[in-house]
Specification:
Blueprint lengths: L4 E2 L5 E2 L5 E4 L9 E4 H9 L3 E2 L9 E2 L8 H15 L10 E4 L9 E4 H6 L3 E10 L6 E6 L10 E3 L1 E4 L6 H13 L3 H9 L3 E13 L7 E13 L13 E7 L1 H9 L5 H11 L4
Helix pairs in contact: 6-7
Length: 276
């Protein structure tokens, strides 16, 4: 299992010793960080090409493009891993996969695979605020979730599906997870209640003590949504078991006791110092 490395300064860093960096074409920055036990299968399936040059990274096959046979081969291979218990879940939802040096997606993959291969993924997180500005809605994740079951989360959060814009993802997740209807959305927009907060970049090793450890790299787009005072979130997709409304003091207590997921804690903490 991968472990953190303690530097002489006492700071804790990350290493990628349990993962194999794989690049795209001539790019130097790794496109993926693949668990080493899965790399052999990628090479055997001719999805990744090895190099005989010292310090040169393995490279994804240049024919691995959206709509290609190799993309279909990749999906079939990863579905086999899931059936064999080599992946923890399967969502049937696809993410666009980018190389570090491009804003054009190269191909698409199941979202669980995208994350477990260390590809850069993207997600939207929303702080749902009451109209008086004194309280925030938090969601409790369903116990059926494959990650962080039962923990507290932002009112709405989710990954950008293939071909989806940030805005579309925002409103889709707000409806699916919190029941923000088109009518509530129009109310929010009319009151200038949608506020972009900031973008986070996360790089960390997840599930380090499980059979499915992976090197996570993700961009989070954080927003706040000021909702009608009488609005009560209602989950639509089964991913949330309940909601709770907290003030700043209660939120600070929950953050201090690590009751929120890492992502949600980053986004929710922005509200603590926001007095606007």
């Amino acid at each position: 299992m991968p472990k953190s490395v303690a530097a002489k300064t006492g700071e804790v860093g990350l290493d990628d010793c349990a993962f194999e960096p794989v690049r795209w074409m001539a790019e130097m920055e790794p496109m993926a960080l693949v668990p080493k036990d899965l790399l052999v299968d990628l090479v055997d399936a001719e999805l990744v090409k090895l190099s005989n040059k010292p310090f040169d990274l393995p490279c994804f096959h240049p024919e691995l493009r959206h709509g290609s046979q190799r993309e279909r081969d990749f999906q079939e291979l990863t579905q086999g891993w899931y059936r064999e218990g080599r992946l923890p879940a399967w969502r049937g939802e696809y993410f666009d996969i980018y190389s570090p040096g491009s804003d054009q997606a190269k191909f698409r993959l199941e979202r669980i695979v995208a994350r477990h291969f260390g590809f850069w993924t993207e997600a939207v997180h929303v702080n749902g605020l009451r109209a008086d500005g004194d309280a925030m809605w938090l969601a409790r994740r369903s116990m059926a979730k494959d990650s962080d079951p039962g923990m507290l989360d932002n009112m709405a959060a989710g990954g950008l599906s293939a071909g989806e814009s940030i805005e579309h993802c925002l409103w889709r997740e707000c409806w699916e997870e919190a029941g923000v209807s088109p009518e509530v959305r129009e109310h929010v927009l009319a009151k200038a209640g949608l506020k972009p907060l900031r973008r986070f970049h996360i790089q960390c090793i997840e599930a380090a003590n499980s059979p499915w450890a992976y090197f996570r790299r993700e961009r989070l787009y954080a927003f706040s949504l000021t909702l009608p005072q009488d609005f009560v979130p209602t989950n639509q997709d089964g991913e949330v078991s309940s909601y709770t409304c907290v003030d700043r003091k209660e939120l600070a207590h929950l953050l201090a006791h690590a009751a929120l997921t890492k992502d949600a804690a980053l986004v929710a903490s922005l509200w603590l110092n926001d007095k606007t």
